[in-house]
Amino acid sequence: MSVHPQELPGLGPVAGSAPAAPRRRVGSALGTGWILPAVVLAVWEGAVRAGWVSPHLLPGPTEIVQTLIGFGAEGLASHVLASSLRVAAGFALGTVLAIAIGALVGLSRRAEGLLDPTFQALRAIPSLAWVPLLLLWLGIDEASKIALIAIGAFFPVYMGVASGFRDVDRKLVEAARMYRLGAVALVRRVLLPAALPAVLTGLRNGLSLAWMFMVAAELIAATRGLGYLLTDGREMGRADIVLAAIVLLALLGKLTDTGMAWLERRLLAWRDTYDNTARD
User: Fold this and answer.
1) How many CA atoms within 13 Å lie on the side-chain side of 255?
2) Is 12 helix (H, G, I), strand (E, B) or coil?
3) With helix as H, strand as E and coil as C, how does 162-186 read?
4) Strands 12-13 and 7-8
5) Are 210 and 90 in contact (CB under 8 A)?
6) Which element (helix H / strand E) includes 8?
7) CA distance 233 to 49
8) Residue 163 and residue 214: Cα distance in Å, rounded?
9) Three-state SS for 7?
10) Cα distances (Å, whole numbers) of residue 5 to 35, 188, 196, 235, 263
11) In whole angstroms, what is the distance from residue 117 CA to residue 111 CA?
12) Which PANTHER family does this chain map to (predicted)?
């Protein structure tokens, strides 16, 4: 069983740790979070109906809803499912590799000196720059799409894991060694809990980039998916289809990020931070 960074076996709270703060009120934040989107949608719809903008270039929200309904439940579900499965597969692959390599780099200065400069250089390469190479290596099937999504998810998770382990408070490690914790116990009971905030932040960022890279992946040669809808709408001159795909991407991205945020709150409920206090 892992311990919090504030505690070590046989010690109780480490000096300087504070009692747990009350959990912030999430319900009110969720309630007010819809105000801005609702205002934007209302102004948008009003501007279209008043003729201030061309409905051909910027269809109103009601027309976008009608476009989504026109796809039908089965057709819409097939596009959403195709994109979601690609994101899930790519994110899982990129995350597994990022956690393994990031932990190695974070725990070993030799590994950091050997691997980190290369990964920092690769991180700067834009997503579309990988497309020709992946097409040459993997063809136009699912493998190239999943690989591109995995590349997008890899670097934020790698950065979060590596920096999380690297920035663990030295006093925690020294106290653990005083109690003769072995290497495995040190990682499991001290380093991993202390690095968890950075790791979870990296996972959230990696999931967001996985959705972004999914669009680039489906621009390669897809017959289903939200990226395909973007391309199809552009080729047909249908701004409503393009905006419908963008709305679906926003909703799916927000839904998955909300799930990750919930997991983060559950796993990090022990932290005594300003975010966990009752804020105005």
Assistant:
1) 9
2) strand
3) HHHHHCCCHHHHHHHHHCCCCHHHH
4) antiparallel
5) yes
6) strand 7-8
7) 22
8) 26
9) strand
10) 38, 11, 10, 55, 19
11) 10
12) ABC TRANSPORTER PERMEASE PROTEIN, ALKANE SULFONATE ABC TRANSPORTER-RELATED, MEMBRANE SUBUNIT
